[in-house]
Amino acid sequence: MSEAKATRRVTVANHTGLHIRPITLVAKLANQYRARIEVVKDRQRANAKSVLEMLSLGGQPGEEFLLEAEGEDAEAAVEALARLFAAGFHEDEAQTAF
Amino acid sequence: MGEALVMDVEGFSIPRRVIPPEAVPGELERLERAVAEVSEELARNRDAMNRDLGPKYGAIFEAHLMILQDSGLRNDLRELVRQKCYSPEYAVDRVIRRYAELLHKVRSRNLADLLDIEKRLLRTLLGRPREDLSQIGRPVLVLAHNLTPSDAASLNPDFVKGFVTEVGGPGSHVAIIAAALEIPAVVGTGPCLGDVASGDTVVIDGYRGIVVLRPDAETRARFEQEAAQRRSRAAQLASLRDLPAVTPDGTRIQLLGNIEFPDEVQHCLDRGADGIGLYRTEFLYLGAQREPDEEDHFRAYSKVVRSMAGKPVTIRTFDLGADKVPHLPDPEEERNPCLGLRSIRLSLRHVPMFRRQLRAILRASALGDVRVMFPLVSTLPELRHAKMILGDVMEDLAEEGIDFNRRLPVGIMVEVPSVVVMIDRFVEEVDFLSIGTNDLIQYTLAVDRNNKDVVSLYNDSDPAVLKLIEQTVRAAQRRPLPISLCGRMSASPTYTMLLLGLGLRQFSVPPSAIPEIKRVCRSVTIAQCEAVARRALTLETARDVTRFLRGELKKYVPEFMD
Q1: What is the pLDDT of residue A52?
Q2: Nearest Cβ partner of A24 from B66, B71, B72?
Q3: What is the predicted pLDDT for the residue at B254?
């Protein structure tokens, strides 16, 4: 079976950047898909299903990333993740404690 | 140079344990069990937080749980144990350190989260909070954020070959204990533990205050060569042991030892000390479960006095804050402990404790040449009060028919500037003086010697300090009264000519410094020293004084290169 690929450009839209809480949300969401999903910044890549790898990538507010997915549900995955990025990880609603 | 043992801020030490290949399956299982246990712990915390405070609080534990369950992390851990035969503890340390560096690089604010996970894992794996320093059974160099004085006192010099602390200054108690145990130490390095792991090779150069982590072959060779040179120089100096400290023009200088523990008497005797110029008694209190009683004091003192066989032993009474004495009522919170209730002030406040110590000192005075010295005196009434209590204790002993020296010499440490200002009065009420430069510098320059941000102001060479020493020596000479100097300054060959030139004839130094100071004394005439002192007193900055004194030392005693 040929693997479907999908990519999407996203921006860190919340005020606090890509820290542990938004990353947890990204990883949880990514884990719902079977596709292999990576977050790419410059030449660095992180597995979107790994909190630790994404933490190591950093991410200031306004920074851009490329989402790359490969697998049968790749398109759905990047679509869902892009929405999460665009919504600023729902940070304002969450009144995050950390 | 040796193997590092890192105590992190929490006090964990991670042994580099390379495990034998046959232990790998068992250790892997131990690792998995620890991960499972910590996962359960995190899940419990998450559920409790969700329940009690709401999901946004539980989320942090959820995040930690996801990190711990990260397949990349767990693979890394397993690989290190399986391929490199690392112990699980060491694998955790290495893997987390690597991720921590990545996080640090991107300035992530979640470094603490990662370290928190590490701590949970290590706590579970080790099942104990802190490797007991007294239990170390192999040669190591200890690197820690801080060591309490009782930590330092429990170091076994047979195995602990040196230590480094991130906080503290050269005059701090930890540094003094290191000198007492004759362990190379560098204190107050600033943050450095992040760059070193247990098992790394480390060089500690206690002479220059340098720590080298993971030295390359060339550096190792250089330090090894230097250590060999020092050993041969020490052997040379040892040949001076039975020669008196006499200047070429025939002035006899008395070199006494500073000690903390009774066992150090041997260090003093080995170096041909003329006596004990400063016997610190704090060790009796530090780390003790209960207040030392009169017998505890007496045992320690009599051991030293007997060993010194008639040579003078100057015992300094309690010189710490109340926080160091577990059984005293908790001190009010002190904003400035070094200006607070400590030392003689504390002794005068807790008279029964003070009397116990004085009774033991008096009883020991029947066994040899004992003198008593009060620390941190700042006013005449304090001195009189202390002497009055001493008089009372003497009367009690006389009534009980207990033997002691009725003419026990009483002296004070000159370490508060107010005493120098009033020195003409003090000399009339004491039998001897001992200048304690460590505190005198701190109080004169108003600088906390443990605060690395201001410690550069703390300088033995400061002209104000030199003037205070000069004034004190002059007053003692007019009387005349025996006077010695027992701060760090007296142990540094740089200052020996200056101090001789100012008129001092007695130095009390850590026993290890005796040979070097003796060498200087035997190389210079008093006339030369007086010229050095005259010139030094005209200089205006500590830097100029130090540069001048080093130059003079090199001129007269060329074998001192540093």
Answers
A1: 87
A2: B66
A3: 96
